[in-house]
Amino acid sequence: PVLRLLEAQLQDQRREHEEEMEALKKQVDAMQEEVGKQQQAFLQTLQLSPEVQVEFGLQQEITRLTNENLDLKELLEKLEKNEKKLKKQLKIYMKKVQDFEASQTMVPAERPHDHNMQVAVQRKEKDFQGMLEYYKEDEPLLIRNLIT
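The line above is the sequence of MYO5B protein; the predicted structure tokens follow.
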């Protein structure tokens, strides 16, 4: 069984290797064809007069620059779209922060009132016998209420 498993793995590797070789051969053939076309174009341009060679070279450079410009334009549009999206998100988050800060400024003003209400409710519900239970952070509030 181990020998069969190893043979199967070897055959799989051989098949993968052959498929890779075929793909690489196709790539080499395509590249050779492209090089042949470029060589023919080069030989044809060499047969042209120097003025036409310069014009042909300029045309090729213009084509290359035009393609590069189109790519850059596309990239710019994509970046501008992303910038708009990020600005919208920033506005949303700034609004959330402002709302949160506004709620935080309201909460401390309401908190002492809420504690007074809690203390009042506790007095009604509990029967105190000389001991008072409170949280350490409520101590200043308790002292202030005792003084007033």
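Note on the example: The longest helix spans residues 50-125. Residues 119-123 have pLDDT under 50 and may be disordered.
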